[in-house]
Amino acid sequence: MSFNMTDQDQITNRSESAQGGKAVIEIKDLYKSFGDNHVLNGFNMTLMEGENLVVMGKSGSGKSVMIKCLVGLVKPDSGTVKVLGKEINSLDQQNLDELRSDIGFLFQGSALYDSMTVRENLEFPMRRHKEKLGVVADTEPLVREALENVGLAHTMDLMPVELSGGMKRRVALARTLILKPKVMLYDEPTSGLDPITSKEIIELMRSIQKKYGTSSLIITHDVDCARVISERMILLVDGINYAEGTYSQLSQSTDPKVDAFFKK
Ligand SMILES: Nc1ncnc2c1ncn2[C@@H]1O[C@H](COP(=O)(O)OP(=O)(O)OP(=O)(O)O)[C@@H](O)[C@H]1O
Questions:
Q1: What's the superkingdom here (predicted)?
Q2: Rounded Cα distance, 261 and 37, in Å
Q3: 22/21: higher pLDDT
Q4: Does some domain include residue 211?
Q5: Which ranges constitute the DSSP H helices of the chain?
Q6: I want to staple 32 with a disulfide (CB 3.0 to 4.6 A). Which of 40, 194, 245, 251 is the partner?
Q7: Mean pLDDT of 24-53
Q8: How many domains does the chain have?
Q9: CA 185, CA 103: separation in Å to the nearest integer?
Q10: Does any domain span residue 151?
């Protein structure tokens, strides 16, 4: 289904391309099956520089498979996946690792290492991606800045067990920000959090995007999160980008498959 845009939105899109918007992620005609389970059937997606794009899909619709194709953890059957101008499936391991250091992840299971302090958790990616930051003699200023971004500088020497669920998620976000990623991938960033903590995380995501001009792909079931954060949305149904548009366009659709996403 191709979603009908209003005249006003068509004008907005034209002016965006006139400003020379750059694609940071381009997925074209992506197919992936596991045996007879045809998960992605020609999925297309473009994330523009500085954009917040939300992808929604039912449980089992292939959102995680799509993200895994994006970071080279799953090999597609066919189609192309370009991230920051590089075709993922043609990169060797070293170039793939380098590219991954420009991609920040906040996944449902973005667990902190329980045996390490908050500071040590944040130092970990710095050691892992030395090629990006070089050898950092004094890690404290970077750790502090990353924690200040999420309002948790005072937790630097605490252990994860001493933090609430929302605080852990914020530290996980700080840990990914320390590498100054160009693209952020969020997989269910508010799942398992109460509404107030969810709101705090969404606000943080917005402030980070503003501060660093990061482009973000957000996978969520949370309609409120999608409403607040998305500039554009894609609904993944039957392995394709079934509908695309702004929150207000999609939430007013009379198509039953689209409408089902917005029913509480
Ligand atoms: N490695 C794999 N081997 C076989 N089947 C797989 C594999 N990975 C995913 N699948 C199948 O692909 C389909 C899509 O799974 P995926 O995890 O992408 O769903 P999802 O949309 O992320 O769901 P949820 O919202 O519940 O996390 C499912 O039917 C799943 O069983």
A1: Bacteria
A2: 23
A3: 22
A4: no
A5: 7-18, 63-70, 93-100, 118-128, 130-133, 140-149, 165-177, 195-212, 223-229, 247-251, 256-262
A6: 40
A7: 96
A8: 1
A9: 7
A10: yes
Q: Which bin fits 222, alpha (ψ -120 to 50), beta or left (φ > 0)?
A: beta
Residue 81: closest CA among 134, 28, 20: 28
Residue-number span of the structural domain to which 122 is assigned? 112-180
How confident is the model over 86-132, as pLDDT tens digits?
999 999 998 998 898 899 888 776 679 999 999 999 998 887 766 66
* Residue indicated by tokens 């606000």: 203
Residue 103 lies in a domain: no
Instruction: Indicate whether 206 belongs to any domain.
Output: no
> Which amino acid residue places its CA nearest to atom 31 of ligand 1?
60
The residue whose CA has the least distance to atom 16 of ligand 1 is: 62
Residue 37 near ligand 1, beta carbon < 6 Å: yes
